[in-house]
Structures are given as structure tokens and as C-alpha cells.
Amino acid sequence: MALLSIRNLHKQYGSTTAIPSLDLDLQKGEVIVLLGPSGCGKSTLLRCINGLEEHQGGSIVMDGVGEFGKDVSWQQARQKVGMVFQSYELFAHMNVIDNILLGPLKAQNRSRAEVEAQADKLLARVGLLDRKTAYPRELSGGQKQRIAIVRTLCMNPEVILLDEITAALDPEMVREVLDVVLELAKEGMSMLIVTHEMGFARKVADRIVFLDAGKIIEENTPEGFFSDPKSERAKQFLAGMDY
């Protein structure tokens, strides 16, 4: 069985259908990159998986855990499926280490000593241990995003969702964040990634899933998708990236 199995997912905003009916499996250790035009349902899909958006039909099931929102609460589900956002979502009044420790201490009732030891290792790994007591206002965008990734990793999730995590960054800062994600991929972290960074998508993905109007139009290997896409819609999308 897939690590994460999505079946007949349906998402409605009033009279507008964002996702009509979507099936998708994520295998353990797999990296899926979701591509498609703006407004095609990529971010909505991630937010439904994490329970930040309520879906109106279908199921999201994790192997060995059960159906999210039914067998397990969304609070429990979010401990299994972490999410990193475009806008960092760091608390401005808390320093780096307190931002990182908040979830594990409050939601998982772990000891501060244990979580802080884990956080220190992760901060050292992303080159930010010396910024442990800094406040978000004292950090660059790239540093904030690396802190957000560490915060998610400290919850020990089985899957990480990454939603346009470089969209708010200056071009020079993009690489330092994407390098962290590439390392996670090499280590076997299961990830669903929404990005407009085509070079990064090609490098990090095991599978490209191309969406339009809330539907999966094409699934392909990175090489196959970028070199010889199967669908006309994907060909149009990629042609629009050439300028």
C-alpha cells in the first residue's frame, strides 16, 4: 500500500469546484512535484491533505495510521504530515528556538531537552545554529525558510508538504533553501512539492504530476515531462516557460 493514498478527493468553494475528483498515491521515500498554472488546485490539494481546507468528498489515508479526519483527528494527522509555507509562518515575538520547540512541546508533550537537542542538530545542518536565539526580524528570507523547514522536521513527520517555499525569496536566497530540500530527498523523506522552479523540479522529483483545473492531466518522470510531455496542455505550459 502507498504511504499516502488520496481517493476521489473533491473540493468545492461555494459554487466553484476547485478539485472535481482526484486520485493520487505517494510512496514511502518518493518525491512528487506538482506542476501546473496558477489557480489549478496545487496548493488547495496540499491544504486539503493537511486539513487546512475542508474537502467535500473522498478520502486521505496514511498507511498504518488510517483515514485523516475519520480514523485520526486532523491534529494527529498534522503530526504525521508536516507543511512548509511560502510565508514562513514564524511567530515574530518568539526567537528561533522557541518557534521550533512550540509544536513538539505543546502537541507532542516531549521534553524540552530532547527536542532542543534535535533542533540544535538540525540547525547546525542547515547552517543556522548561531542564529538560535535570533528573532525572525533579524533573519533573511532564506534563513526564515530554513528555520521553517527545521521546525517541521522537529515534529518527526512521515510526509512533508512544501508549498511554493521559494516564491517570496530573492533569487540569491532560493538556492540555499532548495539545497536543504534536495538533501532531504536524498535521505528518503517522502515529499509533495508545489513549485515554479522548473530546474529544481527536474532535479528533485521522482515523479512529476501536472494539474489543470483541479485534474491530473499528466504523470511522468522528470526527464519525460520536460523533454517529451505526453499531453498537449503540458506542452503549452512548458512552451510558456520559454522566453
Automatic annotation (TrEMBL):
Residue span, ABC transporter domain: 4-238
Species the sequence originates in: Neisseria lisongii
InterPro entries: AAA+_ATPase (IPR003593), ABC_ATPase_HisP-typ (IPR030679), ABC_transporter-like_ATP-bd (IPR003439), ABC_transporter-like_CS (IPR017871), MetN_ABC_transporter-like (IPR050086), P-loop_NTPase (IPR027417)
Keyword ATP-binding: yes
The keyword Transport is assigned to this record: yes
PROSITE patterns referenced in this protein's UniProt entry, alphabetically: ABC_TRANSPORTER_1, ABC_TRANSPORTER_2
A GO molecular-function descriptor: ATP binding
Assigned protein family: Belongs to the ABC transporter superfamily.
Domain of life: Bacteria
Keywords carried by this UniProt record: ATP-binding, Cell membrane, Membrane, Nucleotide-binding, Transport
Membrane-spanning segments: none
Protein name: Amino acid ABC transporter ATP-binding protein
Pfam families named in the record: ABC_tran
SUPFAM superfamilies: P-loop containing nucleoside triphosphate hydrolases
